[in-house]
Amino acid sequence: MLYDAYEFQRSMLAGASAIANMGAGFLQNPANPFAYFGGGPVLGSALEVFAHAAAPRGKPEFGITETVIDGDRVTVREEILARRPFGQLKHFVREGISGSPKLLIVAPMSGHYATLLRGTVEQLLPSTDVYITDWRDAKLVPLREGRFDLDDYIDYVIAFLEAIGPGAHMLAVCQPSVPCYAATCVMSASGHPCRPRSLTLMGGPIDTREAPTAVNTLATQRPHAWFEQNVIATVPMTYPGAGRRVYPGFLQLAGFMTMNLGNHMMSHWEMFKHLVQGDDESADATKDFYDEYRAVCDMTAEFYLQTVDLVFQRHALPKGEMTHRGAPVDPGAITDVALLAIEGERDDISGLGQTKAALALATNLPPAMKRYYMAEGAGHYGIFNGSKWRGRIAPVVEQWIAAHEG
Question: Which of 88, 156, 188, 332 has the fewest CB neighbours in a 10 Å radius?
Answer without folding.
Answer: 332
